[in-house]
Amino acid sequence: MFDSDRGNTDITLCIFPHLREFIAIDARENLLGGPVVLSLSISNVLGEDFYSKVELDFSKLLRRHDMGFLELMALPQQVEAVVRANSLKRIIAEIGINVAEESNDPRGSVGVLFFTGSLLGFEIVQLQEATQELFGNKLPPHAIEQLNEQLFTLIEKERSAIRDLTKHDLTGLISGKSGPYITLWESRGK
Fold this sequence. Notes:
single chain; alpha+beta; globular; disordered N terminus
């Protein structure tokens, strides 16, 4: 189900787009104390250090003297890359891995699972099968059990957040506070 040509990752981040918490699985070989499953808060990642570094990097992007018009038009993608790189560095630091400032090497491979779409439809048995397939040879049984419990709890919270958001969008449409219309369904025929 989650096969990859690149093999298994050493660190896997499980991201829930509407939540302020996420899970990090550090399954690096030779990890002191063995593999670990961590529940982390986005508040710990998005601290003052993060914002200062993003602002500095954005300033460097914006103030380049050799920037042409086309590069200026690509600025949103470059800002996205800056935010992504700095987020990853902060998450890696939160896990306890120290990476040199000029380096982008977290000392292992990092994978990200976004829990959206069909992953949110998983019931507990499907989730157990998927985590066993992904981490069965890297995590001990008690860690996989802990991971399944945490993931399923966050899946339920993400489902609830999406329901609340949809309800809010529909309420805004009916009350007229969300603008003149909202697309509930769109046919994209050729």
